[in-house]
């Protein structure tokens, strides 16, 4: 998606949009599946590898913990 932007100045907004979409997809996956294959999660979230998935999940967990406390 970022390779198709009309100007480099759009890059910042595209990154925000991609992150928002990724967050929404992750929210839906959490509700729809009890378990999921790591490679499938990477594919659905448009992440390149397991390392990117780990970074994404740590960020999501940190946000959850900040608002709702640890469990």
Report what the structure shows.
By secondary structure, the protein is mainly α. Helix content is 68%, strand content 0%. The chain contains 3 helices and no strands. The chain has helices spanning 11-32, 38-44, 50-68.
Brief summary of the model shown:
By secondary structure, this protein is mostly helical. Helices cover 68% and strands 0% of the residues. The longest helix is centred in the first third of the chain and has 22 residues, at 11-32.
Strand content: under 5%
CA-based gyration radius? 14 Å
Helix content: 55-70%
N→C terminal distance: 36 Å
Order of helices and strands: HHH
Q: Structural class of the secondary elements?
A: mainly alpha
Mean model confidence by pLDDT: 84
- Apparent shape: globular
Largest sheet properties: none
Strand count: 0
Low-confidence stretches: none
Tally of individual helices = 3
